[in-house]
Amino acid sequence: MAKIYKDRDADLSVLSGKVVAVLGYGIQGRSWALNTRDSGIKVIVGVRPGKSLELARQEGFEVYPVGEAVKKADVIAVLLPDMVQPSVWMEEIAPNLKRGTTVVFAHGFNVRFGLIKPPNNVDVVLIAPKAPGKAVRDEYVRGWGVPALVAVHQNFTGNALKTALALAKANGFTRTGVIETTFAEETETDLIGEQNVLVGGLLQLLRYGFEVMVELGYQPEVAYFEAINEAKLIMDLIWERGLTGMLLGVSETARYGGLTVGPYVINEDVKRRMKEAAERVRNGEFAKEWVNEYQGGAQKLRRLLEQVQNSQVERVGDELRKLMRGK
Ligand SMILES: NC(=O)c1ccc[n+]([C@@H]2O[C@H](COP(=O)([O-])OP(=O)(O)OC[C@H]3O[C@@H](n4cnc5c(N)ncnc54)[C@H](O)[C@@H]3O)[C@@H](O)[C@H]2O)c1
Ligand SMILES: CC(C)(O)[C@@H](O)C(=O)O
Ligand SMILES: [Mg+2]
Ligand SMILES: [Mg+2]
């Protein structure tokens, strides 16, 4: 069984009297900054000028340019977009890093694929929440937390793991459970998971599920309730009770239909393609493609996002979500 750290294994006092600089006040950065401050730790924010800088100020943080924040900090959490990190690292982080600083990543991408090479005289750790940034804050506020992974790439001070666990505790992650891993395992499983399942596979499954019903002539609103809205409620059952618990929480008819037709639709060919995609992550082909796409202006990404934004399922969903929330 994996090594899993809970609250009792982490000591917040490791961070007392220390300054944590959260670099980036976006999807993860805002949640980490608020959680860590609410846990009684001194937090400053390092970010470029823009809307998120204004928000960080409004929310009461001292905000600095990235390099200044790095100079002032004992711990830096690099919560900038993955593709932005290498240049900011070279220009603003590395020149200002003090000996013995703890550098925290929330995803191992740049270290795993060699795009950032930290100097030997700092600690380098990973605290990777297994959740979107919104849940990182929402769960903390609810008095709980999301699970996370932790890894040590470099232990200069001898305290790298303790510091990482303290910051994980400050974010509520050890309330749930923090599994020890490596940068390689986190990076590869995170990319494989988001492509095959969480973002890619799920989105495509939901879109096809909706489109098939609409193309057969059923009302789009009915298709949205069936294929998309209820998917969340079925996931809640799986989240609370496991796969068997979900199967026992639906009708016998759904149970039989699901168990027989599911493997026909999502068949061995799909699994083979999932393995091919995973191989492209493991051998670095995906990372190379994404870096090239980003450096070329990310036009393909913009076009694909627009296609989703302009699709029928989104229009139907927007209306139904307003209606369901009583607007
Ligand atoms: N988004 C998630 O839910 C999630 C989940 C797990 C791990 N992660 C990891 O967390 C890290 C941060 O991802 P994110 O999605 O929160 O990022 P994000 O896209 O939300 O980051 C945006 C923030 O970065 C700032 N920024 C952008 N370019 C900058 C620059 N050149 N200089 C200074 N600030 C700049 C923006 O102003 C903004 O505050 C990544 O490593 C990502 O893989 C994200
Ligand atoms: C939230 C996810 C998909 O788990 C994360 O890995 C990300 O990259 O945003
Ligand atoms: Mg990810
Ligand atoms: Mg992830």
UniProtKB/TrEMBL annotation:
Query: Per the record, what are the reactions this protein catalyses?
Result: (2R)-2,3-dihydroxy-3-methylbutanoate + NADP(+) = (2S)-2-acetolactate + NADPH + H(+); (2R,3R)-2,3-dihydroxy-3-methylpentanoate + NADP(+) = (S)-2-ethyl-2-hydroxy-3-oxobutanoate + NADPH + H(+); (2R)-2,3-dihydroxy-3-methylbutanoate + NAD(+) = (2S)-2-acetolactate + NADH + H(+)
Query: Does the record carry Coiled coil as a key word?
Result: no
Instruction: Give the E.C. number(s).
Output: 1.1.1.86
Domain KARI C-terminal knotted positions: 182-327
Keywords (alphabetical) are: Amino-acid biosynthesis, Branched-chain amino acid biosynthesis, Magnesium, Metal-binding, NADP, Oxidoreductase
Co-factor requirement: Mg(2+)
- Respond yes or no to whether keyword rRNA-binding is given for this record: no
UniProt binding sites for NADP(+): 25-28, 48, 52, 133
A GO MF term: magnesium ion binding
Tell me the residue numbers annotated for binding substrate. Answer: 251
Please share the entry's free-text remark on the cofactor.
Answer: Binds 2 magnesium ions per subunit.
Q: What family is it from?
A: Belongs to the ketol-acid reductoisomerase family.
Name of the protein in question: Ketol-acid reductoisomerase (NADP(+))
Species for this entry:
Vulcanisaeta souniana JCM 11219
Gene symbol of the encoding locus: ilvC
